[in-house]
Amino acid sequence: MEEREPPKLPLLLFRYFCSEERLEELEGDLYEVYQYYLQERGKSFSKLFYWWIVLQSFRSYALKKSKSKNSAMTTFLTHFRHNLAISWRNLVKNRTTSLINILGLAIGVGAFISIFTIVQYVLSFNSEIKDQDRIYRIYSTFSGSFSGQNRGVPIPAGLYVEENLSGFETVAYFHTYAAAVEVSEGDERKDFDRQYGIILTKGAYFDLVDDYEWLAGNRSSALEQPNKVVLTSDQGVKYFGNIGWDQMIDREVIYRDSLHVLVSGIVNKPSYQSDFYFTDFISHSTINTSWLKERYGDGDWESTSSFSQLWVKVDENTTLEATTAQIMQLNEHAAGLLSEEDFVHEFKLQPVDEVHFNPELGTFNNGPTAAHARTLTTLSILACAILLIAIFNFINLETAQSSTKSKEVGVRKVLGSSRGFLVSRFLVESIMITFFAILISIPIAHFGFAYFQEFLPEGVQIPYASTWFWINLLIIGLLVGLLSGFYPSWIISSFQPIKALKSGLSANYSGSSFLRKSLIMIQFVFFQLLVVGTMAISLQIAYMLDKDLGFDDSGVIFFYTPYYESFEKQKLIMDFVNTQPEVLDHSKQNYLPAQNGYSTTTVKYQAEEREIITSVHIKSGDTTFFNFFGIEMLAGRNLLPNDTLKELLINESFMQDLGYVEPEAAIGSSFEFWDEQYTVAGVVADFHFRSLHHEIEPMVYTYDSENRCIALKVGKKQLSTFIEELTDKWDQTYSQYPLTLYFMDERIEQFYETERRASKLASLATAVTILISCLGLFGLISFTIIRKSKEVGIRKALGASTSNIAAILSKEFVRLIVLAFIVSTPLSYAFITKMLSDFAYTVEISWWIYLIGGLVSFVIAMLAIAAKVWKAAAINPIAALKYE
After folding, report:
1. Residue 111 pLDDT level (bands cut at 50, 70, 90)
2. DSSP 3-state assignment of 13?
């Protein structure tokens, strides 16, 4: 077997630290040992052995050299070992106190790790994209007769920017798309459900996100020709199985039955977290050679859809001011092509690192859900607050039990120990407790993740395999140990030797007493804030779910027929529905009464001798819509089943905007809608067609015979049987599309998913804070009882009752809780006011909710200390007086 050179790094370290004589003595022997074990045991073992030999040699040499010079390193190591041993003995001796300290810190650190991991994961999105500081999305904003924003742009905008504007290194425009996929291999056909990561793009996309690794195909030409597609490696394996990348080239993929394309490239996705989740990249030129042209063709400047995306990478030497000037030129061009004078369409730049943190614009159609920046801030504050509560708890317990360490301080000072040595002695104990707490915190964090699984972003997990995770955990342990241990160590080490040898020295130490009370009060302020905040969120959620929305959603299930399929197939489904006795009622519409998405347009009408242009929401469906959902008709009649009649229904809010007080007066009025005059056939009662975050706005309802959304009311007893039969009929009709059924009441609950998550998070944070605080109170009352044991004995001897003694022992904590209530009430009011400002309709928060918050914290605190207080109050006075 050939000889190998030993690893360089340990040898370089060895040569650097050792003297020439020692180097000559050991280096040759070590080389021979390495070669011997390389041949006998293999490379991995020989490396390990060599490292061990080098380190042991260096250690023995360093210790020998340091002993001869009486170095500070030897002294430090000796003191550290001594402090470690003493700390371990103290932890074992004071098991109860140690357990309280370790559990309190473990819960705090576990909660911190869980929340910090989630926040770090979310913040990592798009942060590692190459040249991300130069990448922007161009999006649309609207003002005038309609106000709003859209993450997309008109279809012609991309080509205009590419051909007419300067200062951009890359202009990438693409369309998001979703379709069922079919792959043929000889006589075998594989069908895949609807794929959502499809885009129609040019090769410029891979210049924009320049982090894809090309495994097969030519990057420069892969998307130049029509009917070509580039796949990610995962998608390639999904479609074709585990074959070679080159073997996938020129394989056929069929989208939506009729779009035939050939694979021209295979790429590896970037390893980092990104909103660019796409998996299938179809060449943009395919649009003009297929039926896709009807949807993604030339388009016009007055139509904007979120599926049309426009991204740019700015030249390195181009300033933001110059780029903004180019966007202004785009705005001027678009303004000249709009037909409505009162409507303003402008384009703006959004940096790629802000895309994931803007829920108003969102990421991409069917893409990752955008995060709420305020939620991340709240989570970060909550994580730090829980950790600080745990640290405060530790400081309280350590300063409270300082009397038990006073004799040790006195003896050590008499024997010549410096204050610095004493501080290090107690800091070692603090850090030891912290690292025990961290070991326990890891399973706590793991189970915390399991508890929040339904709320976690997809893909987030505790990175056990990451070296940085353990390094960060080590740093957290050191920081928490130093933060929590420094003040108690400093206080304890400040005792004068003579006074320190007296019993109970620190019991009346004013500085530690004041700090301890302050920290207890802060704990309970935070605790009461969480209790009141959780109750307020729960009340608001209950109010939103119970509030009358103006329509009946009970027992309603619904589904959508495939967008690209003909209505002849839908008729087969409806014929089946009509023959089922289990179906109590049904309705077809384009939009449910309430949903997250919405469609708007502008209308023109005369009011007080002037023309007004305003925005209205559009609902459409058949004539069963209002009866099915129980929406009241205030005046007029329902629409007639005729697509050519120029009439519609309006809601109360739009009626009032038109200037009418009574619904009957609005019947027969007309206004310009979709560039034609429409007549009001009826007025319906207002109902909430968006979440309660929004007020009810003007709405029109039009008749439409072609609707994709089918709503049903089915008897509860027959529901499961009907779903099975409907599924069978669906599979016969739409073989490539799985049936997805929704319950309307569940869909409405999703409006308030953010609030529900906040409520669950606040509940967990409250429980964690309660647990940590109760652990701290239990420890503190124990030391209070020990400190006042002689006073308790004397009072008992003089005739004090058990209840009197209990009141004396607990009055300090009662005062602190009352003070915390006074401080937390205005803070709670400000928090609740801010939270409810996000809703157009809010529950009334009464004064009693603040009182309950104070009472809950009081009762829990009393329960935490009750057993100890009652036991101390009932003790024999002779035993209490003999204690000291």
Report:
1. confident
2. helix
Strands 670-673, 647-651: parallel, antiparallel or unpaired by DSSP? unpaired
**230 in Cβ contact with 174 (< 8 Å):** no
Q: Helix, strand, or coil here: 701?
A: strand
**Terminal-to-terminal C-alpha distance of the chain:** 77
Residue 167 and residue 315 in contact, taking contact as beta carbons nearer than 8 Å: yes
Q: Where are the beta strands (DSSP E) in 132-217?
A: 135-144, 148-150, 168-185, 188-201, 213-217
Q: Looking at residues 777-790, what average pLDDT do you find?
A: 70
Nearest alpha-carbon partner for 272 in 447, 127, 487: 127
CA distances from 476 to 215, 258, 435, 441, 765 (A): 41, 57, 9, 12, 20
Largest Cα–Cα separation, the chain? 110
In contact, 333 and 159? CB cutoff 8 Å = no
- Ramachandran assignment for 186, one of left (phi > 0), alpha (psi -120 to 50 degrees), beta (any other): left
Handedness of CA 82, 87, 88, 92 (dihedral sign): positive
pLDDT in tens, 303-359: 888 899 999 999 998 898 999 999 999 999 988 877 666 668 899 999 999 999 888
Supply the DSSP string of 517-539, one letter for each residue: HHHHHHHHHHHHHHHHHHHHHHH
Q: Is the pLDDT of residue 76 over 50?
A: yes
The residue ranges of DSSP E strands in 494-571, in sequence order, are 556-560
Range name among 6-20, 276-290, 566-580, 735-749 with the lowest pLDDT average = 6-20
Is the pTM higher than 0.85? The answer reads no
Tokens of 5: 């050179």
Cβ within 8 Å of residue 141, ≥6 positions away = 148, 149, 150, 345, 346, 347, 348
The three-state secondary structure class of 643 is: coil
Which range of 19-33, 225-239, 532-546 scores highest in mean pLDDT? It is 225-239
pLDDT for 647 equals 92
* Token code pair at residue 115: 């929340």
Cβ 147 vs Cβ 342: under 8 Å: no
**What is the per-residue burial (b if ≥16 Cβ within 10 Å, else e) of 634-645?**
bbbebbeeeeee
Q: Please report where in the chains the tokens 């929004």 appear, as a residue.
A: 694
DSSP string, 703-766: E-S--SEEEEEE-GGGHHHHHHHHHHHHHHH-TTS----EEHHHHHHGGGHHHHHHHHHHHHHH
Q: What is the identity of the amino acid at 479?
A: L
User: What distance in Å separates the CA atoms of residue 434 and residue 426, rounded to the nearest whole number?
Assistant: 12
Q: By the 8 A CB rule, do 352 and 136 touch?
A: yes
Q: What percent of the chain has pLDDT over 90?
A: 27
Between CA 839 and CA 856 the distance in angstroms is 28
Give the amino acid at 627: N
Q: Pull the structure tokens for residue 331.
A: 């705005």
Q: How far apart are CA 883 and CA 868, in angstroms?
A: 17
What's the rounded Cα separation, in Å, for the pair 546 and 316?
55
Our CA angle for 410, 413, 417, nearest 5°, is 145
Contact present, 769 and 523 (Cβ < 8 Å): yes
C-beta neighbour count of 583 within 10 angstroms: 17
* pLDDT mean over 669-675: 85
Is the predicted pLDDT of residue 508 greater than 50, yes or no? no
What integer best gives the mean pLDDT of the chain? 81
Q: Is 102 exposed, middle or buried (0-12, 13-18, 19+ CB in 10 A)?
A: buried
Rounded Cα distance between 667 and 155, Å, is: 39
Read off the tokens for 214: 């090309």
Rounded CA-CA distance 157/309 in Å is 10
pLDDT for residue 131: 92
659: left (phi over 0), alpha (psi -120 to 50) or beta: left
**Residue 650 bridge partners (DSSP):** 683, 700
Select from 524, 390, 386, 533 the least CA-distant residue to 854. Answer: 524
